Amino acid sequence: MLLATPQNRREILETLNQAFYTNNHLNWLATGKTEASERIQPLVAYTFDYGIRHGKVFSTPQQEGVAIWKRYPAKGDFLRDSLLSLQLVSQLGLAPIPRILKTEAYVEKQRSQYPYLYLWMLGVHPQFQGKGFASSLLDPLLLEAQKEEIPVLLETSTLQNVSLYQHKGFEVYHEYQPSRELTIYFLRKDPS
Length: 192
Description:
Number of helices: 7
Strand content: 15-25%
Number of strands: 7
Helix content: 40-55%
């Protein structure tokens, strides 16, 4: 796996946009009148940019897949983070912001006490799914968590992904259904 840099941004965003095009959670958060690919692009770009600043972004050698994760408690840069958030709002518009803030507040309440590592986004381009890329992208994160003896947390709205994570030792500890069409599964892997 490669540690991504801002120079890889275009290729990585293309992979993530393709991987999350049909993602229930992102499409629900950024609901609007535009095409799904246009709705999720700002969220994916925000996650990448924030991940580069405050976490780690790993990709496969040809950007078939990408994992973005960060450490909690996180050190922030208020001014730069605020500018990044304003950029997101300017691209999404104001309509989805209350939904995003409400969901984020709920998610934060479900997380454990510090410290932990958080898998924010893991996506594999659709043409490469099922070939082991997702599993290999998890390995650096799990190794670091094991060395530090801290848990790894994540959420997914894709039921198929729950079994992938369970295969890697994660357990579902909570479910949240913010709408009839969306269930968010909260998973955790404790250090072993």
